[in-house]
Amino acid sequence: MENIVSASVLGCDLSSLGAEALRAEAAGSQWLHFDVMDGLFVNNISLGIPLLSSVSKKTGMYVDTHLMIVDPIRYIEPFADAGSDNITFHVEACDDPQAVIDKIHSLGLSAGISVKPGTPVSEIAPFINKVELVLIMTVEPGFGGQGFIESTLSKISECRDLIKASGREVRLEVDGGINEKTAKLCREAGADTFVSGTYIFHAEDMPAAVRSITG
Ligand code: DX5
Ligand code: ZN
Q1: Which residue's CA lies nearest to atom 4 of ligand 1?
Q2: Is 65 in the pocket of ligand 1 (CB under 6 A)?
Q3: Among residues 119, 196, 124, which one has the least CA distance to residue 151?
Q4: Cβ(10) to ligand 1 under 6 A?
Q5: Ligand 1 midpoint to CA 43 (Å)
Q6: pLDDT at site 4
Q7: In the chain, what are the domains?
Q8: What mean pLDDT is predicted for residues 78-98?
């Protein structure tokens, strides 16, 4: 599978979100990563539905929505309507992950399931046959600009083995502290989809930064 960069809008100048999305697209980032936080699942509040509706109309990029919210099934439909192509939710945030996956699929979208750094891959293993994407968080969710947690690398390898064993095409995404150096470690561990905010949006040469991630 082709390596892809998903540009995390949390790292951009949010006062110019539309222009920043276009800048990421022109720099070679195929996906736009939209981080949603509710102040409950994580200790921060970020971006919501009206903003996604506006920005998704500005760009042709594939919209990769990351829900860091409790009981995500409540908000699948509004985030689908707002222009998401993939919706990823956290296994820690719901009682019935299969119901969330089914809801996402019923709206014709790609479904992603995610684990925080402290949650074992075994929690999502039963769903690898059901989703199109697995997201291994490489920082504690809640804030951009944090340092990559190296102990998550073994979880990426473990997940890659499970995906191989499934025989399915499932994207293996990493998110948090991704730059040229940490992306290489993640590629070696088996990741193919790289969320990056601070590193690419603050780079002097954004296209070069994007290329340095995909390798
Ligand atoms: C963290 C978010 C990330 C974050 C990535 O909770 O899920 O997507 O914005 O930002 P950087 O690349 O700055 O770590
Ligand atoms: Zn994210």
Answers
A1: 144
A2: no
A3: 119
A4: yes
A5: 14
A6: 98
A7: 4-214 (3.20.20.70)
A8: 98
